[in-house]
Design goal:
By secondary structure, this protein is mostly helical. The chain has 6 helices and no strands. It has one domain.
Length: 167
């Protein structure tokens, strides 16, 4: 992907002139610090979950190469430790070392995901909107925080909060 072209001051000046010539132009409210930080939390947690899934799948496939079938899911990870330590498991030392590295990575990622989940729960527990969203079936703290974080405020829309009537 090519780097973004540098901004030209003339473009900024043109935009300012254009905005001043349109008195009915709507403006977007600047984001608060929380509005900038919450997407980072959501996206980083999602990235860690993907990395953990990749690491679990890699570990399972490596063990499968040596004839060990590991069930899907992170809940079965504790069962894999004894396999890595078993001298009768027919794992070569290099394979054992790499698989232990993956287990260490999985432990680290799981700890970070758990810590982030606690932060999500705490943030999602704040505010009336989050509480109302979580009363809906299938919406938990992560979903409520995602809506609160990524959906723009309805007040900035012309019909935000108005009931649409068939017509």
């Amino acid at each position: 992907m090519a780097p973004a072209a540098p901004r030209k001051p003339t473009n900024d000046a043109e935009a300012i002139v254009e905005a001043t010539l349109r008195p009915t132009m709507r403006y977007v409210e600047p984001k608060t610090g929380d509005q900038q930080a919450r997407p980072i939390l959501c996206r980083t947690r999602e990235q860690f979950v993907k990395q953990r899934t990749e690491a679990v799948n890699a570990l399972r496939s490596h063990l499968y190469e040596f004839g060990h079938i590991a069930p899907k899911g992170t809940g079965y990870l504790p069962r894999l430790g004894p396999v890595l330590d078993d001298p009768d498991a027919n794992l070569l030392p290099l394979a054992q070392e790499i698989c232990r590295d993956l287990v260490d990575l999985l432990v680290h990622l799981s700890g970070r995901i758990t810590a982030m989940k606690k932060r999500v729960d705490a943030i999602a527990g704040e505010g009336e909107t989050s509480h109302r969203l979580q009363t809906r079936p299938g919406v938990g703290p992560i979903g409520a925080l995602a809506v609160k974080t990524f959906a723009p405020p309805m007040g900035q829309f012309k019909r935000g909060g108005a009931t649409l009537r068939p017509g």
